[in-house]
Design a protein that fits this description.
- It is built from 13 helices and seven strands.
- With 375 residues, the protein is an alpha/beta fold.
- The two termini are 27 Å apart.
Length: 375
C-alpha cells in the first residue's frame, strides 16, 4: 500500500527588536509563611480541644472515683457514666484522626517510586528477537517492510474490536434509535477492511465482503493482499434482530481514503454498483499527511490494489517519465479532511480511526489537531 508523508515545515518568526526594553516582572511568590501559620493554628485548635476534653474526662473520672457524686441519685450516676463514656470516645476519635492525618502527610511527602526497568539481559533478549539493523537501513523507506518491528506487528487480528461491537449490538438491540457510527480508513487500499468495519458499525448484514470482492475483481484481478483481507468468510457476525432489514440500523459514515488512482477507480466502481454510498460508504481519492497540498502518485503499469508503491516512486523518475506515469493527487491534513468531507456532527465521536500508510502514521496524526484527536 502506498501513502505519503510531506516534509514541509511551518516557518515561525519572532520579533526580538524590543528585547531588553521591557522590564521583566518578578513572578509572584506564594506567602508560604502565612499558610504554615494557618496550619499551625488549626493543629493547635485540635490539640487544645483534645486537651480540654482529656482534662474534663480526667476530672469526671476522679470525681466519680472519690465519691463526689455519692449524694446524687442513681439516675444521676448513670447519666454521669454515660457522659464519661461519650467524652472518652470523643477523645479517642480525635487521637485516631490526628494519627491518620500524620500518616497521610508522611505518605504524601514520600518520593514517587521509580518505575521498574528492564535489565541488560532482558534488553539484549528483546534485541535478539527484534534486530534493529534493517530498521536503520530502511528508515527512509518504511513501506518496504524490512524492519523487524514491522514484521512483528503487521497484520494484527483485532478480535477485541469485534468482541466489543458484538456486545454493542446486544446493548442497542432494544433501542429504537441506536447511536450513529463514524469510521475513517486512511490508506483504504482494496476496501475490504473498510467494508467489514461499516458492517460492524451499522450492524448491517447486507454489507458483505463476498459481494464486494465480486465487484472489485469484475474488471480484472487485484494485486495480492498482504494480510489476506479479501477472505470473504472473515466477516463480522451480525446478530438478531439486526440480521433482518426490518430492524432499524444505526446510521453509518465510513470514509475510505485511498491515494492510488487505479485502486480508487475500482473502489468507486464497486461502491456505485452495490449502492454502498447509500449505506454510508464514502470513497475519496486523496492522501492524508500533516499538511494539505498535492503529491504525485505512480499509475503506469501497476495493478489496482497494489501496496508499497507510489510513495516516492515518482520522485525517482525524470520529468518526462513523471508526466507519463504519474498523477497529481490531493493531500489533506486530517483536520482539513474532516472540515471538507465528514458530515457527522462535530460532537459525534470517531468510533474507529484506521491508519495504514506504510510507516508514515505519525504524519497523519500530526495533521489531526487536538480538536480531532479528542473525538
Amino acid at each position: 500500500m502506498t501513502k505519503l508523508g510531506l516534509n514541509h515545515r511551518n516557518q515561525i518568526t519572532t520579533n526580538h527588536s524590543l528585547a531588553g526594553k521591557i522590564p521583566k516582572k518578578e513572578p509572584k511568590r506564594k506567602n508560604t509563611s502565612v499558610i504554615h501559620v494557618f496550619k499551625a493554628f488549626i493543629l493547635l485548635g485540635i490539640l487544645g480541644e483534645g486537651y480540654m476534653l482529656y482534662m474534663q474526662v480526667e476530672k469526671s473520672s476522679s470525681d466519680y472515683s472519690l465519691g463526689t457524686s455519692s449524694t446524687t441519685s442513681d439516675d444521676g450516676k448513670n447519666k454521669e457514666q454515660e457522659e464519661l463514656i461519650k467524652l472518652k470516645a470523643k477523645v479517642e476519635y480525635m487521637e485516631k484522626t490526628l494519627e491518620e492525618n500524620e500518616k497521610k502527610q508522611q505518605e504524601i511527602s514520600k518520593p514517587f517510586p521509580r518505575p521498574p526497568q528492564c535489565t541488560q539481559d532482558q534488553l539484549m533478549k528483546v534485541r535478539s528477537q527484534l534486530p534493529p539493523e534493517f530498521c536503520v537501513h530502511t528508515q527512509d523507506q518504511p513501506y518496504v517492510q524490512s524492519c523487524s518491528f514491522t514484521q512483528a506487528t503487521k497484520c494484527p487480528q483485532a478480535t477485541w474490536l469485534e468482541e466489543y461491537n458484538i456486545e454493542l449490538q446486544k446493548m442497542n438491540s432494544t433501542k429504537n434509535n441506536p447511536p450513529s457510527f463514524l469510521g475513517i480508513s486512511v490508506g483504504c487500499n482494496k476496501g475490504y477492511d473498510a467494508i467489514n468495519t461499516l458492517r460492524m458499525g451499522t450492524f448491517d448484514a447486507s454489507i458483505n465482503k463476498s459481494d464486494w470482492k465480486k465487484e472489485m475483481t469484475k474488471h480484472g484481478a487485484l494485486d495480492i493482499s498482504v494480510c489476506d483481507q479479501d477472505t470473504a468468510s472473515d466477516m463480522f457476525e451480525v446478530l438478531p434482530p439486526y440480521d433482518t432489514e426490518s430492524t432499524p440500523h444505526p446510521h453509518g459514515e465510513m470514509h475510505c481514503i485511498e491515494p492510488m488512482p487505479q485502486s480508487f477507480e475500482r473502489l468507486k466502481q464497486s461502491t456505485d454498483a452495490l449502492s454502498y454510498s447509500k449505506k454510508g460508504l464514502v470513497v475519496t481519492n486523496a492522501a492524508v499527511s500533516k499538511e494539505s497540498g498535492e503529491m504525485l502518485f505512480h499509475t503506469g503499469g501497476l495493478k489496482a490494489g497494489i501496496e508499497n508503491k507510489g510513495l516516492d516512486s515518482c520522485g525517482r523518475l525524470n520529468e518526462e517519465q513523471r508526466e507519463k506515469y504519474c498523477t497529481l493527487v490531493p493531500v489533506y491534513s486530517l483536520y482539513d479532511y474532516f472540515k471538507t468531507h465528514v458530515k457527522a456532527d462535530k460532537k459525534d465521536p470517531i468510533n474507529i480511526l484506521s491508519i495504514d500508510v506504510e510507516g508514515f502514521d505519525g504524519n497523519v496524526l500530526l495533521g489531526a489537531t487536538p480538536e480531532i484527536l479528542k473525538r
